[in-house]
Amino acid sequence: MAVIWMGDGSQTLTPAKTDPQQIAKQFARQDIPLYLIGIGPRGDSDQARDLGVEGVPEQLDAYTKNQIYVRGMLKARGVANRDITIAMKIVGKDGTPRLIEQAVVRPTKSDQAISFQLPLLAPDEGSYELWIEAKPVDGESVLENNRITSYLNVRGGGARVLFIEGEPRTESKFIANALLESPDMQVDRLWIAREPIQKWPIDLSQRLSNGVYDLFILGDLDSDAIGAAGCKLLVDQVQQGAGIITLGGYYAYGAGGWSNTPLADVLPIQMGAAIRQPKNGPIELKNHYEGSVQFVPVAVDRLLQIGEPGTDYSALWKEMKPLTGANRWGGIKNAPGVKVLATGDSGQPLMVNGIAGNGRVMSLAFDSTFQWLRQGKSKEFKQFWRQMALWGLRREAVDEGMQLSMSRRRLLLQQGAEVMMTWSPGSKEVKMPSEVGLKLWKFEPGQQEDQPAKEQLLGEYRLNPRDATSMKLAFDGVKDPGRYEWRSSAVGSKGKTLESRLPFVVIDQSLETLQPLPDWQLMGQLAKLNEAAGGVLVSPEQTADLISRLLERRRQATETAIETFQLGDTTLDSWFVFLAIAGLLILQWGLRKRWGVP
């Protein structure tokens, strides 16, 4: 007659075996009403306030100093038109959480899901625990779902590059794309348009104050665009250890007024008496070499080695398409570390490197290497610029090391996972150590949130070799919830102790507690889909109405039928009539005989 369903509508079976909406439709097609009795407060009730953080990835990977975004979803109920603070904290090696970013969102509906993203600048190499949490509101009964734990794996060797350019050019576009193909490099592009020139110079103090950039690429830009203050900030970063590569262009070097800035003191070239290029005037050709200029390496240097290892790279350079012009310099500085790497076919210097304080500087007189890409030499083009960036970053050599990883970082009680140790051989191709120690530690929280956690050693484990560069362990899980950490150690090639840490969390949370409020939206959808058959959503106080609906449905389903009955219509009563008539005839015959009646 009908299906009566009672509950809160929250889906806690994962994965769900059936789709409730399809079932509601199927009942409607069969004319079976679905009566839903919703249990629990509605979203607009004061009792229904709840915040839940969902959708944050379990693991995030980044390289040092690269910026990533932590994205997630906030489910807000009963807090319409209120500011909700979402905070992100990073837990250090001592177990102390530290606030690094927060954002404020404002729900406009009583039941709403709001997406958010929090910027994160990757710290030093290692594995970190992240807490993304929504600040509780008054009247919130369940707080377990306000926080979600994620893990950040930071790899060494990452770099952050700032590409400062005037009007966007083909050269700068392809260089940036080539560097962005390397996962360990993040390229931030700063295009400074010529119009409106009244906004010059732009303020670089906020960008450069925290020293997050390891390499600067300066394109075709007039010095007035960043001014003396911006130029000094740039030079200070270089002298403190950052690298800088300057490209050719109509407003580069002396033509752009850079000879009168602090940059002239750190570049390895002399700008000479270049004619100042008018910002809106015709191009002053005396500052440039016109026509085709062939790139000719004149030094034996790793920067110039392109193609496959062992090949004659000088022959490959002869195949590269000539450059379309170059900048004229006044000369090359006679200073330690200054080296001319390449010239044009007429001997004009094209590529010169040097040092400035703790940083490296490279001056290029050209801006048309994109022709090599269009020529079909994309591999050589990307290899050249990758090597240029690594040189400016001082990344020619890489040490050996190891990295721990897990198949899952959020575990339930006694849930197993695979622990993996991956060995990085470094530039010297060091073999993986035969013995790698692995210990499991547990963190006991302090009295207050900002106090360090106490460490407890739970045991030692043995990693089994998997291949030449990795080991693994089948972990069976633990019985107690809490924060845990793997710590591995080994002895490197130079006797140095190598370490790697990997935190993870074990949770004891019921899905029912994580979803404390009814899903009235889903229940309303089911009733709507079954509306054709009489489906309805009611509260427990309205169940008496369901009885009336059932009785009315039974009454409507009852039909009055008039039936006539005649003796002898059925087999049973036909035999009864036959036997009765036969008995009467026999009785009549007997009486007539007895009485002598004819």
Give a structural overview.
- This protein is of the alpha/beta class.
- The protein folds into 4 domains: 3-45 and 516-557, 3-Layer(aba) Sandwich (Rossmann fold), CATH 3.40.50.410; 48-156, Immunoglobulins (Immunoglobulin-like, Sandwich), CATH 2.60.40.10; 164-392, 3-Layer(aba) Sandwich (Rossmann fold); 401-507, Macroglobulin (MG2) domain (Immunoglobulin-like, Sandwich).
- It has 12 helices and 32 strands.
- A hairpin with a 2-residue loop joins strand 28 (464-467) and strand 29.
- The radius of gyration is 40 Å and the shape is elongated.
- The two termini are 69 Å apart.
- The mean pLDDT is 87.
Biggest sheet, open or closed, and with what strands and sense?
Answer: 8 strands, mixed
Q: Domains counted in the coordinates: how many?
A: 4
Q: Output the CATH homologous superfamily of the largest domain.
A: Class I glutamine amidotransferase (GATase) domain
Beta-strand residue percentage: 25-35%
What is the tally of beta strands?
Answer: 32
